[in-house]
Amino acid sequence: MLLLIAIFTCSLLVAQENRMLDFFVNKAKENTPVIKENNNLLKIGEIQSSIIKAQNNAFQVNTTSELLVAPYFNNNGKVIDITTTPSINAIGYDVGVTNGGLYSAQINVTKNLFNQAITDNLLFQNKISSNSIGLSSEEITHNIVKNITDAYILAYQLQLQENFTKDILKDLEKRLQVVELLVKRAVLMESDYLLLQLDIEGKKLELQQIQNNLKTAINQLYSLSGMPIGTIEKLEAPNFNTASEPSKFFYQKKFKNDSLQIVANQKIFENQYKPQVTAYANTGLNAVEIPNLYRRFGASAGLRLTIPIYDGKQRKYNAQQSILKEENLNFYKENTKVQLENNIATIEQQIVALEDNMALLNKQLDKQQNILEIYKGKLVQGQISIVDYLNVIQNYKLNSYTKLQMQTNYWLLQSQYNFINW
Hints:
The protein is α+β, with helices and mostly antiparallel strands. The protein has 2 domains: about 20-30 and about 115-275 and about 310-420, Outer membrane efflux proteins (OEP); about 65-115 and about 275-310, Single Sheet (Outer membrane efflux proteins (OEP)). About 65% of the residues lie in helices and about 15% in strands. Strand 2 (about 70-75) and strand 3 (about 80) form a beta hairpin. Helix 2 packs antiparallel against helix 4 and helix 4 packs antiparallel against helix 5. Mean pLDDT is about 90; it is low at about 1-15. GO terms for molecular function: efflux transmembrane transporter activity; porin activity. This is Outer membrane efflux protein. Its main location: membrane.
């Protein structure tokens, strides 16, 4: 089991402009266009289910109309004539083909019968497609959390560096006042004063660079969250716990859905081999002669049965392809499992090693803090040079920065652990 991450805590009151990690994560989730698009795609999938049911189970009603005229030339002395009894010398289409014309206006109704299995297969395929979109949104959200968390950690590290540098500067400026008095009393040389003053100016430049980097890091947080750049007084410490092992890893859900997609596609392919029964009926006008046209209104109905017989073994070949695709998925699934287990074990080892190093460094910093206090007292008494004092501060600063980097790496490792242990 991993230990809970120990985090730096702040004693300052939280101002209105303070921001926490969850604030940026939640805003990113709200503003990411891909997630919004996927939500609409899920709604489209629900509508598609209704379309599938309508296409396969509902009555289909339409109207058709047709007017066909097939005249004869040189019929019984007439240059052009429309008739169903042309003379032997008339020129025109065979009356057995055209009947001289067609006057039709009908309402047609069709309905598929006994096709629930076909409909269920189509609905199943649509459901799996929607599941793929849902998994895509889940993965995008998970990546958002990781990206925002890492960016927030790096920004918070800069804030800690800023606070530490300010504390160092504040202490050096106090020392500068003491050195000034000692120079006036001829205890220290003027060069000592100038050297300390120069170091303070260097620290101010360093602080300015850190603050510029912090502003850039915060602006990046706003950009990643899809928000206009705002003003932040301070960032709160990133507070998150180690993720427990899920009951089912995301990769398992994804491979399961991919496997079902293969099954769904196979079922859709095999829909064409199911017997299909269609009932149809129509009513309206259907005539070949204009005389007595009003008496040519009627109705008709029938059944159409379609039974596939032979397809050149396409069904067999498609089934073989599906089996091979399933095997490919299993290859990747097993490889992903091994990679995941190795990565988790590696990160756990890194975190344990980092914890040990941080404990040793904390002891070293405690000793350096004591030495620094001793040197402050000796500096006041003029017993040490400014160079020695600045060297002690520099060593303390380097180790403090190392501690900040270790803490940052600790958070980043936990972020990575939560990212892959999912």
